[in-house]
Amino acid sequence: MLTSWLALALLSVPGIALADGIDDYDARAQAIVDSFSTAQVVGQMTQLTLSEIMNSTSRDLNETAVREYARLNVGSYLNTYWESPVDGVYGYNASEFRSLIQRIQNITMEENGGHPVIYGIDSVHGASYVVGPVLFPHQINSGASFDADLVYQVARITARDTEAAGIPWIFAPILDISQNTMWARTHETFGEDPYLASVMGVAHVRGLQSHNQTAACIKHFIGYSKTPTGQDRDNVLVSDFELLNNHLPSFKAAIDAGALSVMENYISLNGDPVIASTRILNDLLRSDLGFNGVLLSDWNEIYNLYAWHRVSSSREEAVAVSLKQTSVDISMVAEDTDFIGYALNMLKENPEQEARLRESVKRVIKLKLRLVTRTELRRSSLPASPLCCYRTTNDTLPLPKQASVFLTGPSSDNVGYQCGGWTYTWQGYSGNEMFPHGISVRKGLENLVGNDSFTYFNALDINGNIDEANLTRSIQLARQHDYTVAVIGEPNYTEKTGDINNPALPEGLEDFIEAVAVNGTKVIVVLLGGRPRLLGSIPSNAHAVINGMLPCEMGGQAIAEILYGDVNPSGKLPISYPMHPATVTIPYNHLVTTRCQWDNCQMQWEFGTGLSYTQFNYSSIAIDKKIISSAADTLTATVTVTNVGAVPGKETVMLFLIQPFRKISVPSMKMLKKFKKIELQPGESMEVSFTLSSADWSVYKPEIGTGLSRVVEDTEYVVAFKPDTRCDVYADFVIPMNITNPLCASFSINTAGGANVSSASPLPSTGVATGNSASPVPSTRVATGNSASPVPSTGVATINSASPLPSTGVATGNSASSLLPVSVADVSSGGLLL
């Protein structure tokens, strides 16, 4: 249907001369907004959930409701309808979703003069609300991969599958920095490190927008994840310095990479609700970051100024406050259209605000011009069946194929527990019924070694409950087998419903592991869940621990391949795994004044931990200069990495920067600044180098609304390779310091009093390892660093690892899938070929 709106969208606009710096979308959007009445402007700022226009007892569209809302000029819809089956069916496949949205579009444009809606959805681990496409692991698994190319490909396929359903607007990626492991949205993040989240966020945004038919919506701006109690939606207390230097970088990188929209969050920052904050949404987002895309509220959040934050005495006042004080463009009102009346009343009393609302709607129309018209005119492309790869393990591992294995645990045959929340519906589903292509751990073992090669029995529920008779049987079965694989973890959840008061796993799960850890069996614990839960005695009773996190559909196959050594894993923990309740809020890069009994705060496993079936040796660290004398200077740090084991393996080489003394703020223990993933044959060496610049050793001044200036302090700095390297800089109070660890090197900056540097730092990248991969083994290759942004090249799907070491280790998870016929999963090599 080509109406007047689409004619403006698809054709040049007669009589409009484009000024310098104004793109065609800008002019077209302005022409459309100029034609709008005030009521049309407010309607375009309104977003409703799908259930508002569905029949309550069938899968059919309530066309009367669609027409009613179209006459109110509602501009956007979101979500899926299904929390439970209707007529025995869950959800829509891509073809059904596209037909539904096309019908919504046609009815809307018939009723409102030809102005289309834009549809958005939470495709947070694949097209996860569409039945049929591949379901990828959650973002925490992507963070564990330390593989930006892989994340790009995951996002690219997600965009393709979401757009195939007729949905052009994707509410992802999540760029919050996990700061409390109890938080129910930890699994939605890339982990606790700002640089890692920045690299992965850029890759994800570029992947989602690579088709030029879908838009990313980065979320949740800003500070949402720093909950002091672990409860979702807590008020957050945070300094400007921490906000800008820890929480802002991932959002800034994604915006610089071209993210087309942003979603704000549910919290108040230092008592100031973000949804009403001029300082955050205008001064920081619009002015400092220069963001000119669409700003979307989170679910019902404007009304929450009244219902949750209690800073407004009515919903009508809440709407007026948010619209007058911020630059929010679309209100995810979700469940009613009262917002429209409230906004119109506000404009009657404050007519000067209409120009601000028209500016918002211009941004909305520009997004529609980019996306909706293309989706309207493009034929459907349906996804095919998924294939996948994924990996993990430890010293007891890999298992011999002929091993005697007892498989048990509440998550051992439950694909829903592998997928977590945001899977077909908000809270996800338990069980296997919804996942016809899914592979549980039990099914993965059957596929790999056959049903006769292991014994399966489980009577333990996800909360650790089991009756005495079944516990006795489980103990007997464990005693009869060489190995016991116990798959435990969490049920599916997300957001507030996932709040917990105790960071530990249920006591019954811990007791069960202790009970089956009898003489004669080696216990391998596989963890499946969205956040690190305290393990108590489990590590001491286990011979190996695999942390699969939320690998989703194909996770069971991947875990089986790890268990039996078909794949050598290479993932690394993107978040510190706490050992005690007091350390759940302590990331690896905490301030030096955060001390536990005057020592490093002990973790179960530290950020970056991840073992392998091979071992890597680091040597020959070097830096090319000892003194930085100007803001333009760079420094190159080099290390040689050698595979000293017996099998090929992948290693993520990490470089950390330490500033032992800092005047502007108490320094952090260390900060990840570069990483690169390499692959080495047995006996092979590679020289890996990274180039550091002022963007790496400068920090943002704690100032909002002044343009984000950065400052470099003249002092001594230390570079360190590997996450577990201790440079002992805090034990020596003399400058220059005496650095004795061979994986550490110090340098000084001397720019005559420090220097201000541009805030327009280059986009984060991991670097590309280059060299002659066909060289004989043993050999040495060279990896040169700091490459351009991720490109659509071959990615490697990994989890994390465990090695043949005489101690309990952790393997953290990550998986990826591919879709036929556009990609082929090379299962034998553990790679993802796209």
TrEMBL record:
Residues forming the Fibronectin type III-like domain are 651-725
Q: Where does the signal sequence lie?
A: 1-19
Sequence segments annotated as region (Disordered): 766-795
Q: GO terms for biological process?
A: glucan catabolic process
Q: Which reaction(s) are listed as its catalytic activity?
A: Hydrolysis of terminal, non-reducing beta-D-glucosyl residues with release of beta-D-glucose
Pfam families the UniProt entry points to: Fn3-like (PF14310), Glyco_hydro_3 (PF00933), Glyco_hydro_3_C (PF01915)
GO MF annotations for this entry?
A: beta-glucosidase activity
Please state the Enzyme Commission number of this protein: 3.2.1.21
| UniProt keyword annotations, A-Z | Glycosidase, Hydrolase, Signal
The protein's matches in PANTHER family, at most eight in alphabetical order, are given as: LYSOSOMAL BETA GLUCOSIDASE (PTHR30620:SF16), PERIPLASMIC BETA-GLUCOSIDASE-RELATED (PTHR30620)
Know the name of this protein?
Answer: beta-glucosidase
